[in-house]
């Protein structure tokens, strides 16, 4: 994957150095076009050191090639991150007065703008019209995040999390289909059940699968809400998440949002059992005997109510997996079951199989959870299109 990264004059420019590092780690070849104003925030030496390539600074330097044309021919995607109001205005109005803007105008493949600016600039009507123009023509413009800004204000305009930008680039270069505003409700992480005031019974689920699903939904133009239990991975602050702890809390939150979604993906590792009685103080006994009862089956409870969205369940099995998975799909009224085994717990990889209600089987083999997330979304999009439009 060959990437031209345009860096413009925003305080967020330093975060683009981390983006270069992530892309290089993934095996991408990155060439940086650094604007004159961008040089006030990051140095050519920093960009060259991290990218391992010459940094392009000036349109009018003697060379054997026409720079903006050679860069356009070489790259698979042009990413402008951070993108200031200035470069967005130039691009929307066909102005080419430096190396980055001429490269953009001559670029015939995917282009991604990642805005970063103060709230007042982002909300400006002219800027918003320019963004609409770029999107209407077919260019990709990410929405900035909300939070603390360089001005000291709090609002929309922050450079999005680098991990999301990185995955957006992966989505565009892979050619994943746009989800076109499809609404996904995702559960993730693990539940806990109290033994006493300080001790709980739980499992080792990390929340990675849910996080990759949320990343993939956002990067592919879907809308995501998540109900998350306890996790060991970080979720970006501006993801729409509700935090829960026990299975009963998770069930209540999912019930509250079921009517909103087009698809429920139940990726949480919900505890099967809970102590029959919660002890109201910290135990100091030298030995302990506990009695357990089964928790409510969250997915079965949710799918008892009509009408239902598209429903995807998960089944962790180490033996007789497809037989068990098919039985769960029937008993829990799911459209799909994702099978994996215990090696997937707290791992970035999973050996997965997707079972569909129509009897078809997708054997994915060993994949990253990002790849698995996108395979699940591809299957969901296909089923959704069939149910709503009668076609794939």
Q: Which CATH architecture of the largest domain is right?
A: 3-Layer(aba) Sandwich
Estimate percent helicity: 25-40%
Low-confidence stretches: none
CATH topology of the largest domain: Rossmann fold
- How are strands sequenced across the largest beta sheet? 12-11-8-13-16-17-18-19
Instruction: Kindly name the structural category.
Output: alpha/beta
The rounded Rg comes to 24 Å
Distance between the termini: 29 Å
Question: Could you give the topology of this structure?
Answer:
Blueprint: E1 2-7, H1 13-25, E2 29-34, H2 44-51, H3 67-74, E3 77-83, H4 85-92, H5 99-105, E4 110-115, H6 119-123, H7 125-137, E5 140-141, E6 145-148, E7 154-158, H8 162-174, E8 183-188, E9 193-194, E10 200-201, H9 208-219, E11 223-228, E12 241-243, H10 247-257, E13 263-266, E14 273-275, E15 292-294, H11 298-302, E16 310-316, H12 321-331, E17 336-340, E18 349-356, E19 361-368, H13 369-389
Parallel strand pairs: 1-2, 1-3, 3-4, 4-5, 8-11, 8-13, 11-12, 13-16, 16-17
Antiparallel strand pairs: 6-7, 9-10, 14-15, 17-18, 18-19
């Amino acid at each position: 994957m060959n990437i031209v990264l345009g860096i413009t004059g925003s305080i967020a420019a330093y975060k683009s150095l981390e983006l270069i590092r992530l892309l290089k780690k993934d095996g991408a070849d990155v060439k940086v076009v650094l604007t004159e104003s961008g040089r006030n925030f990051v140095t050519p030496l920093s960009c060259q050191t991290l990218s391992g390539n010459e940094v392009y600074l000036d349109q009018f330097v003697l060379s054997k090639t026409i720079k903006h044309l050679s860069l356009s021919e070489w790259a698979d995607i042009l990413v402008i991150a951070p993108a200031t109001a200035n470069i967005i205005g130039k691009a929307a109005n066909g102005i080419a007065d430096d190396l980055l803007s001429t490269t953009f105008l001559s670029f015939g493949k995917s282009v991604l703008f990642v805005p970063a600016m103060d709230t007042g600039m982002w909300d400006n009507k002219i800027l918003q019209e320019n963004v609409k123009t770029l999107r209407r023509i077919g260019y990709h413009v990410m929405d900035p995040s909300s939070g603390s800004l360089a001005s000291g204000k709090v609002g929309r305009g922050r450079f999005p999390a680098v991990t999301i930008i990185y995955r957006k680039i992966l989505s565009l270069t892979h050619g994943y289909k746009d989800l076109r505003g499809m609404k996904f409700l995702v559960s993730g992480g693990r539940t806990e059940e109290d033994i006493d005031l300080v001790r709980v019974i739980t499992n080792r689920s990390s929340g990675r699968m849910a996080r990759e699903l949320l990343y993939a939904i956002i990067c592919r133009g879907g809308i995501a809400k998540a109900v998350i239990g306890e996790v060991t991975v970080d979720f970006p602050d501006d993801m729409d998440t509700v935090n829960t702890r026990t299975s009963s809390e998770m069930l209540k939150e999912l019930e509250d949002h079921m009517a909103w979604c087009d698809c429920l993906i139940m990726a949480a590792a919900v505890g099967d059992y809970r102590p029959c009685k919660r002890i109201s103080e910290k135990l100091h006994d030298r030995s302990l005997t506990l009695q357990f009862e089964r928790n409510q089956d969250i997915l079965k409870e949710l799918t008892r109510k009509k009408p239902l969205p598209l429903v995807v369940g998960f089944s962790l099995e180490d033996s007789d997996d497809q037989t068990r998975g098919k039985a769960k799909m029937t008993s829990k009224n799911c459209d799909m079951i994702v099978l994996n085994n215990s090696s997937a717990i707290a791992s970035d990889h999973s050996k997965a199989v997707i079972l569909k209600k129509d009897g078809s089987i997708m054997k994915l083999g060993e994949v990253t959870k990002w790849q698995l997330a996108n395979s699940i979304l591809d299957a969901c999009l296909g089923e959704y299109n069939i149910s709503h439009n009668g076609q794939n």
